[in-house]
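Example protein was shown:

_____
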Amino acid sequence: MFLSIPDSFSKLYNSAVVVCPLCNQRSARRFCPALGHQICAACCGTKRLVEIQCPADCPYLARSREHPPAAKVRQQQREIALLVRAVRDLSDRQSRLLFLVLAFVARYEAPEFQALVDEDVVEAMTALSATFETAVRGVIYEHRPTSLPAERLANGLRTVLAKAGDTGGTAFQRDAAVVLRRIEAASREASDRGNRRAFIEVATRITRSDRHAGEAKEEESPQIIIP
């Protein structure tokens, strides 16, 4: 004797598990209004406002702001501590220069299929800081990163720094070297084997609220950074 199974139960037990399209690992259980499809809770929490432009009426965004989880609080504390160490003992114009560089890294758009990762940031900062340190000693020599993504980042940042340091001379070169070494150290410290863009995401979160102000500072940087 065979028992018939209602269609509703058949659909329940035979339905395929939807995999999150962002990580391709976990089950997608949350509908993302920004992307228009389901994603997993982990990607929702870690990529929110970083890689996903969440609308203001997203219920998960509102809930996270009202009741941030303990992990989020610890993350914020780590990032604040990282920023404090980065700006420790810096002068006012060095601090402004540091945020200019962070904003550039956060907004940098790499060519397709060549996504920027933290290792590229470290390479670019190492090469640029060495170039400025050499210039301070009176020797003109351009240190170059080994990877193509790092070189492209360094070239873009070199243009911004050249504009910011126009007429700044040795004093600006010395400040730039100090700031770039601080960012190099911070990117090494923030690096995470499970997330190759950990520092870039930190830079994005730090500069997000001042993005428009940062763009204005970049345009007027010679007057702001150089007294």
Summary: Residues 87-225 form one domain. The chain has two domains: 16-66, 87-225. Confidence is low (pLDDT under 50) at residues 8-14, 212-227.
